[in-house]
Amino acid sequence: MIRFEDVGKSFGPVTVLDGLNFTVAPGEFVTLIGPSGSGKTTILRLVMTLEQVTSGVITVGGEYLSHMERGGRLVRADEKHQREVRKRIGMVFQQFNLFPNMKVMQNLTEAPVRVLGKSRAEAEERARELLDLVGLNDKVDAHPSQLSGGQQQRVAIARALAMQPDVLLLDEVTSALDPELVAGVLALLKDIARTTDITFLCVTHEMGFARDVSDRVMMFDGGKVIEDAAPDKLFSEPDHERTRSFLQAVLERG
Amino acid sequence: MFENVPEYISTAADGLWITVGATVAGIAIAAVLSFVFGLAMLSRLKTVRVIARIYVEIWRGTSEVVQLYWVMFALPILLGYRLVPLLVGILVLGLNFGAYGAEIVRGAVQSVPRAQYEGTIALSMTPAQRMRRVILPQALVEMVPPFNNLFIQLLKGSALLTIIGVSELTHQGKEVLIPRNVSEAATIWTVILLFYLLLAILITMGMRWLERRAAALVGRQPTKRDSVFARFGGGKDPLPAEQSKGGLADLRRKGGE
């Protein structure tokens, strides 16, 4: 579903990703772990087209994302091409990024109506189902500013799902939440991962969650995948010393 | 000293309506130009950005007095016909203050957090949808207070129309009332000052109303002008709802905050 081929990303003189190759199969839940600055979030931002690759090619669902074909040649994708491909991709952000000028309902219906061309009635019905799913059906008319962080993140998850994405990117979605609100959001995500065939690419520091929900975990350091394994293997008996020391450090902190 | 005040007021009022008209029309033109050129300065197309920048620098960077003289006396030489002074005045007010307003619009749009822009991309919105549906409504709140300042300055700037012979408020004082009652200059100019003050207060009231509307649009508590003092005086600042920490039980609570 997602394929990185020799992807490099630099910000000015700083190289964040260097010759990165990996694939994520349809329906797979893949978690990226690793120290800060290892390039995990950059990978999500590249898939969401919030950043553009410096080198290499990204494809999503068999379509070029970073590039497009023109006259038989592969050229850099323009905004219009990326807008089409990114309709299949959704993202949940660390800081929720709800639109404060819209009530909860409108946050959920705005893009389905204007981008996907759904009727308002259809979009609202779907929004109510999703708010039911995330346990916030009594907040339809609330403004985002009236909600707690956990509630805002649930709305943000519902908003991403309203676009019926094939791929959902989770960028440290519980890092900005009060500790007692984390479990609820993670349980919700686990539920969604189990009951849908959405492909997940997830960056998190919640190792228990990663172990529970992932099909595969990739350990990152210095812009490279240094270990790529099933969660039980990676968390119990990692092959690499770097993985071991990272997990040790996270456990001690947690 | 005060027995002539009613006469001063009624004579000044003849000019008041011209001042009001020039100010309202000037504000309308300035507001439109502010948005057009403010957004143009943020365009992806370099040519558009350069054109907007040239407009702003020319109209912000030259003297308003000279601008009035130029449109009044130089432009007719190039154009072959003359505009009436009031129209010249309105145009110059609009063009001049629109240049400042464009910077207000540009700054306010840029002050909307980048995260909001990224949220719109994650939802595959078009650039026009991003701006119209998400970014501009939030930027509006930031624009209103500086526009309030700008519009009051425009009102006061309208006094300059005197120099091209528009019989607005200041003109009524200088050219009509003073020559007739030169010994009463203090009273006359005070009456005229008070008229400007009254108009400025009306503008502020209108803009405060707009500010409340814009704040409500983004779900914010309207800012209270006295909140700084309330803080010192032990007044209670309402805690934003998002800071309430009710735990998981909070999620199930019915009704609003």
From TrEMBL, chain A:
<dbReference type="InterPro" id="IPR027417">
    <property type="entry name" value="P-loop_NTPase"/>
</dbReference>
<keyword id="KW-0067">ATP-binding</keyword>
<keyword id="KW-0472">Membrane</keyword>
<keyword id="KW-0029">Amino-acid transport</keyword>
<dbReference type="GO" id="GO:0005524">
    <property type="term" value="F:ATP binding"/>
</dbReference>
<protein>
    <submittedName>
        <fullName>Ectoine/hydroxyectoine ABC transporter ATP-binding protein EhuA</fullName>
    </submittedName>
</protein>
<dbReference type="Pfam" id="PF00005">
    <property type="entry name" value="ABC_tran"/>
</dbReference>
<dbReference type="InterPro" id="IPR003439">
    <property type="entry name" value="ABC_transporter-like_ATP-bd"/>
</dbReference>
<dbReference type="InterPro" id="IPR050086">
    <property type="entry name" value="MetN_ABC_transporter-like"/>
</dbReference>
<comment type="similarity">
    <text>Belongs to the ABC transporter superfamily.</text>
</comment>
<dbReference type="InterPro" id="IPR030679">
    <property type="entry name" value="ABC_ATPase_HisP-typ"/>
</dbReference>
<feature type="domain" description="ABC transporter">
    <location>
        <begin position="2"/>
        <end position="247"/>
    </location>
</feature>
<keyword id="KW-0813">Transport</keyword>
<keyword id="KW-0547">Nucleotide-binding</keyword>
<dbReference type="InterPro" id="IPR014343">
    <property type="entry name" value="Ectoine_EhuA"/>
</dbReference>
<dbReference type="InterPro" id="IPR017871">
    <property type="entry name" value="ABC_transporter-like_CS"/>
</dbReference>
<keyword id="KW-1003">Cell membrane</keyword>
<dbReference type="InterPro" id="IPR003593">
    <property type="entry name" value="AAA+_ATPase"/>
</dbReference>
From TrEMBL, chain B:
<feature type="domain" description="ABC transmembrane type-1">
    <location>
        <begin position="16"/>
        <end position="203"/>
    </location>
</feature>
<keyword id="KW-0813">Transport</keyword>
<keyword id="KW-0812">Transmembrane</keyword>
<keyword id="KW-1133">Transmembrane helix</keyword>
<keyword id="KW-1003">Cell membrane</keyword>
<dbReference type="InterPro" id="IPR010065">
    <property type="entry name" value="AA_ABC_transptr_permease_3TM"/>
</dbReference>
<dbReference type="InterPro" id="IPR035906">
    <property type="entry name" value="MetI-like_sf"/>
</dbReference>
<feature type="transmembrane region" description="Helical">
    <location>
        <begin position="16"/>
        <end position="42"/>
    </location>
</feature>
<protein>
    <submittedName>
        <fullName>Ectoine/hydroxyectoine ABC transporter permease subunit EhuC</fullName>
    </submittedName>
</protein>
<dbReference type="InterPro" id="IPR043429">
    <property type="entry name" value="ArtM/GltK/GlnP/TcyL/YhdX-like"/>
</dbReference>
<comment type="similarity">
    <text>Belongs to the binding-protein-dependent transport system permease family.</text>
</comment>
<dbReference type="InterPro" id="IPR000515">
    <property type="entry name" value="MetI-like"/>
</dbReference>
<dbReference type="InterPro" id="IPR014342">
    <property type="entry name" value="Ectoine_EhuC"/>
</dbReference>
<keyword id="KW-0472">Membrane</keyword>
<dbReference type="Pfam" id="PF00528">
    <property type="entry name" value="BPD_transp_1"/>
</dbReference>
<feature type="transmembrane region" description="Helical">
    <location>
        <begin position="68"/>
        <end position="93"/>
    </location>
</feature>
<keyword id="KW-0029">Amino-acid transport</keyword>
<feature type="transmembrane region" description="Helical">
    <location>
        <begin position="186"/>
        <end position="210"/>
    </location>
</feature>
<feature type="region of interest" description="Disordered">
    <location>
        <begin position="229"/>
        <end position="257"/>
    </location>
</feature>
